[in-house]
Amino acid sequence: MRSNFKPKLLKLAIAGAFSLGLASSALAVDLTMYYPVAVGGPLTKIVDGMVSEFEKQNPDIHVKAIYAGNYNDARIKSLAALKSGKPAQTAVMFSIDIYELIEQGAIVAFDDVVETVEEKAWLKSFYPALMENGKTQGKTWGIPFQRSTIVMYYNKDAFRKAGLDPEKPPATWDELVSMGQKLTQKTGGKVDQWGAMIPSTGYPYWMFGALSMQNDQTLMNGDGNKTNFDAPATVAALQFWKDLGSKHKIMPSGTIEWGTLRQNFLAGKTAIMWHSTGNLTVVKKKAKFDFGVAMLPANKRRGTPTGGGNFYIFKKSTPEERKASMKLIRFLTDPERTAEWSMKTGYLATSAGAYGTAKLKQYVKDFPPAAVARDQLKFATAELSTYQTGRIRKLLDDAIQSVLTGAKSPAEALTGAQKKAERLLKRYR
Amino acid sequence: MTRKMTRYSLKSQATGWLLLMPAAVFLIAFTYYPTIATLAKSFFSQGTALRPSQFVGLENYASLLDDEVFWKVARNNIIYAGITIPISIALALLMAIWVNGRLPLRSLTRISYFTPTILPMIAVANIWLFFYTPEIGLLDQTLRGAGFNGHNWLGDPNTVLGCIIVVTIWKESGFFMIFYLAALQSLPPELEEAAKLEGASRWTYFRRVMFPLLMPTTLFVMINAVINSFKLVDHLFILTKGGPDNSSSLLLYYIYEVAFSFLDQAYASTLTVILLGALAAIAIAQFVFIDKKVHYQ
After folding, report:
1. Residue B285 pLDDT greater than 50, yes or no
2. CA distance A261 to chain B (A)
3. Could you say which residues from 180 to 209 on chain A have a Cβ atom under 8 Å away from some Cβ of chain B?
4. Å from A344 to nearest chain B CA?
5. In this complex, do B156 and A200 lie within 8 Å of one another by their Cβ atoms?
6. Residue A15 lies inside a defined structural domain of this protein
């Protein structure tokens, strides 16, 4: 009897261990996530921290979060991974990559992944302006994560010196010009301090998206298959940008370098700069003068494009992996975590819920510039994004630069760009 | 007897092939196969999930002829090569002769000429970005100090390519100098003494003796310089991104843009074929025409 019992127990134990092992391996999901870093700061550490917290709460999901370089690199790596057979299941990529990713058949719409009422409500919890770049064909393909807008940084000391009220930054184009003229300081023929600088290398189309929106004109339609480059309001907006340098002389002529503009502003060489909210934390740390942050000025209305990265889920994934990805994305975009992310990076918090959290409320109260981007969201529009988006963007960039450097007139450059864009986009209608 | 011979030669042939194999495998995998694949790709359209790739014959080449940006970039590249190659070689030779002589602090001078070479191009570009930056850059501050007006160096289509060329020459000539320096030190000193005894001037010695003896080095350096003038585009990423309005864009940078920003591998392949063709033609021309004038010891 006794001698019989032991082996049985052992068998039972082995069987039990086996079934347990099987069960846990059936539940465990391995996820690979690519994410880019587009601004300075220890962002990888913050992401890694959030991911390991997620793994602690969800022991059955293993996440491999891979830093993939800038936005361009992240897209290339994700697409290459899809082809290599070792694909990622989810990634943060440029919000404007949406059409490219759809055309490559790389991503699924979130509408096809969400199931419960709660999940559907979550899909609607973000600021609508931030969803614009993630929606097309009536579906949502991208969930806002690291998002920004353009804001106006201004040097309050320079305002005081020029006899201007430092609490009243320019609110209209006319004020920008008139204040800019007062802020432009010269000795002899040489300019010591410019009134304003709007960067025109790197992402000229982004800055231009703000100017054209302020002229009440979007750059493209919601289906991403038609551009409005030659619309009269677009042409007038580019004329205004050009005039700031050549006619009003409050900005240097030629193009202005995106990468060194912050140094120009910090060195007091320009009283106003337009730049991404992503620079806020660095400017706050480095500015040796009193500075302010304001919404961009209006002409017919206020306006700025949004910018930054969205979460996507890849098509090449099992239902379990998609479900796990959803869990991860919901975790990372939940109000508490979003608030923390925003405070640490300067990116926008993507939902009203996040700005309602106690910690972000306090932070905004102590540092009001952090709220400017949020308040500006109601005037925000989508960033330029179409099918063939790289080519279309380049057409507009080249047109803008050829105007700013005086090679072409705004009408000539933009009509040319529109004609070429038409040729590329016709087949997507 | 004959049978034995064939077996022997078969065996030796096998050994030969085996010895070749490691190099051949790598050359085929990383040079010949990609070249042929690129050529093949240039005859197909870019495929997407919605529109699979199909054979389009010479269509990509036809659109290349219509592509204004391509012509602008090609023109830029010719100017860029035409200026950087002769100047960086001449400077390299001059510096090599200079540091080959008896100088105080000779090794320090040599090192300082060579330093730009060991810096990565991206670092070099970042340094120069702050030279060229308007208002706060070194160049503008110096100009202002001397009472001149500043200039938007990288923002002006008339000066931007020149700025890029200067950076490249600065970076390249130190590298070429090393080859000339090595060659100079292998020249037998008797030649110079003999020339002196014959009463030849230093210029005659340089023109008639030294320069001809340096020809193998010059050929080597020249081929490298030509290749680099098409290959070296790292600094564009930092300094200008090809702008304003493609004024500083070069062929390889444009290929990168087409392949990785426009995601159009087909057209990028077409451009690559053109670049490969041009480089091959130049290399062949150099070997055929200049090789005859090269005196190998």
Report:
1. yes
2. 9
3. 189-190, 194, 200-202
4. 27
5. no
6. no
Note whether A188 and A297 are same-domain residues.
yes
Which residues from chain B sit within 8 angstroms of residue A391, using beta carbons? 262, 264
**What pTM did the predictor assign?**
0.84
Q: Do A390 and B263 touch (CB under 8 A)?
A: yes
Whether pLDDT at B5 is above 60: no
Average pLDDT (A138-166) is 94
Residue A287 falls within a domain, yes or no? yes
- Shared domain for A264 and A404, answered yes or no, is yes
Measured between CB atoms, does B241 come within 8 Å of chain A?
yes
Report chain A residues whose CB lies below 8 A from the CB of B260.
72, 76
pLDDT at A119 over 50: yes
A155 and A144 in a common domain: no
Contact B130 A394 (CB under 8 A): no
- Picking from B69, B243, B261, the nearest residue to A201 by CB comes out as B243
Q: What is the pLDDT of residues A156-177, one digit of tens each?
A: 999 999 999 999 999 999 999 9
pLDDT of residue A25: 45
When pLDDT is cut at 50, 70 and 90, the band that residue A17 belongs to is: very low
Residue A18 pLDDT more than 70?
A: no
- With beta carbons less than 8 A apart as the criterion, state whether A404 and B245 touch: no
Domain ranges of chain B: 60-293
Q: Note whether A77 and A210 are same-domain residues.
A: no
- A401 vs B150, B244, B264: nearest CB: B244
- The answer to whether residue A21 is domain-embedded is no
Task: Over range A68-75, report the average pLDDT.
Answer: 84
Count of domains for chain A: 2
Residue A263, domain member (yes or no): yes
Q: Per-residue b/e over A124-162, b at no fewer than 16 CB within 10 Å?
A: eebbebbbbbbbbeeebbbbbbbbbbbbbbbbbbbbeeb
* pLDDT tens track for B247-273: 999 999 999 999 888 888 899 999 999
Shared domain check, A260 and A281: yes
| Between B148 and A213, the higher pLDDT residue | A213
End-of-domain residue from the set A376, A403, A418: A376
| Residue A39 in tokens | 């601004």
Contact (Cβ atoms closer than 8 angstroms) between residue A325 and residue A54? no
Q: Taking CA atoms, what residue in A is nearest to B153? A: A254
Residue A24: per-residue pLDDT: 43
Residue of B144 and A265 predicted with greater confidence: A265
Domain limit, last residue, from A348, A376, A404:
A376
**pLDDT over 50 (residue A3):** no
Q: Quick one: A101 and A203 in the same domain?
A: no
CB contact under 8 A, A190 and B150: yes
Report the C-alpha gap between A92 and A88 in whole angstroms. 11
| Pair A153, A139 in one domain | no
CATH number, domain of A58, equals 3.40.190.10
- Residue B121 makes CB contacts below 8 A (sequence gap 6+) with B171, B232, B234, B235
What residue numbers bound the domain in which A313 lies?
28-148+307-376
Distance from CA of B171 to the nearest CA of A (A): 22
Q: What angle do CA A314, A315, A318 make, to 5 degrees?
A: 100
Which distant-in-sequence residues (6+ apart) come within 8 Å of A422 by Cβ? Answer: A227
- Tokens encoding B115: 């330093």
How many alpha carbons lie under 13 Å from residue A205 in its C-beta half-sphere?
A: 27
- Which residues of B are less than 8 Å from A105 in CB distance? 48-50
Do A53 and A94 lie in one domain? The reply is yes
Q: Do B244 and A390 touch (CB under 8 A)?
A: no
**Chain A contact for B47, CB < 8 A?**
no
DSSP state of B198: T
Q: What letter represents residue A187's amino acid?
A: T
CATH assignment of B60-293?
A: 1.10.3720.10
